[in-house]
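ok trying this again, last paste got cut off
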Amino acid sequence: MDTTAYQAFAKEKLKVTFKDIDLLLTAFTHRSYLNEHKKSVREHNERLEFLGDAVLELVVTEYLYATYDEPEGVLTNWRSSLVRTESIGAAAAKYDFEPLLRLSRGEKRGSERARAQILANSFEAVIGALYLDQGYEAAKKFLTESIISTFEEILETGSWMDAKSHLQELAQSQETATPVYKVMKEDGPDHDKIFTVGVYVNDKLRGQGSGPSKQAAQQKAAEAALAYYQQAKA
């Protein structure tokens, strides 16, 4: 087993030298890879992911509590924005996790959405491995650089809010109007419907989206409308 690339990753990206490099190797091992290499690989990364998730939550919670004098509800929403799949998946991509992922042949051909989830899971697993091998302070240092450093931008853009809440605030401030959601069409049988929803501001279509429920389609429409406003601003 060649661990050279993993130790190089630890030195360059995590700024540490792993004492037990097998921990890091396991952090990048997806369940599907284990199924194809049962004789040579004993463990996948889900237990480390479980541990890393807890470390991530603690580090982020500690930072927010110590830095901001806000009520619990606000801090909870802010924490959610930092630890959600999109945020940690983006960090994993930024730190070039993907070439080190150990996946089955099928998972390598998976969808972009599936790959994003795998990246986010591997990020948490790496945090778990870093915590076990180097301790809490090392994990905290890396998370401060990779996750907490993005918080100012999250606050500035308002992306800590869900898309519908963010759109409502934006539409009221820019157009003094409240977004209205309308179902544009429904496709498919009753047990497997796809809804397409449009969101209108001052009777003008600002975005549309589709999903398996009206609520999901509304969120997608709100995201499209936010992209519209962002593009108009640019």
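PB: full thing came through this time. The CA atoms of residues 129 and 135 lie 9 Å apart.
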